[in-house]
Design brief:
Strand order of the largest sheet: 2-1-6-5-4-3
Shape: globular
Number of strands: 6
Largest sheet: 6 strands, mixed
Order of helices and strands: HHEEHEEEE
Number of helices: 3
CATH architecture: Roll
CATH topology: Nuclear Transport Factor 2, Chain: A
Number of domains: 1
Structural class: alpha+beta
CATH class: Alpha Beta
Distance between the termini: 73 Å
Radius of gyration: 22 Å
């Protein structure tokens, strides 16, 4: 009887220890994924300031749906094309209040984007709230969807 009780207690302790390890591993993996998404998001910010197809294409999913605060929606080709042609020209981009939530192979990134622009040669300033949906594809985080909204006055 005592032997059975000791074995049961040891088994329960092992189970608790293993579940704690699994929980820790999930937390570590999530933190690692969040860092990878943050790094991809930063590479996109830099590529939007100094755009080239070579810098932008690996960061953007082929099925990109990129919603602007004015209502226009870009595809991967139109998003990259407008940046490279200077139709959308970001002189500076500052990101604040960023949060990242990884759920499986998808990440939700929210932030405020403040920028100096020179769209089609016309200087301007913009401040918008962004929701970016990133998806892990082929081992890389890629922007799958983005929606911008104007900051409430």
């Amino acid at each position: 009887m005592l032997k059975t009780l000791i074995l049961a207690a040891a088994g329960a302790l092992a189970l608790v220890t293993l579940s704690g390890c699994a929980s820790h591993a999930t937390t570590v993996a999530s933190a690692s994924s969040e860092q990878a998404v943050a790094a991809a998001s930063e590479r996109l910010r830099l590529a939007m300031i100094d755009p080239s197809p070579a810098a932008l294409a690996p960061l953007v999913a082929d099925d990109l749906s990129y919603g602007h605060s004015g209502g226009r929606v870009d595809t991967k080709d139109s998003f990259i094309g407008d940046l490279v042609a200077g139709k959308s020209d970001f002189v500076t981009i500052t990101i604040t209040d960023q949060t990242i939530k990884v759920v499986g192979q998808t990440a939700l990134v929210r932030h405020t984007l403040t920028a100096d622009t020179n769209d089609s040669g016309k200087p301007g300033k913009v401040q918008i709230k962004i929701l970016g949906v990133w998806q892990q594809q082929g081992g890389q985080w890629k922007l799958l969807a983005r929606q911008a909204v104007r900051v409430a006055a």
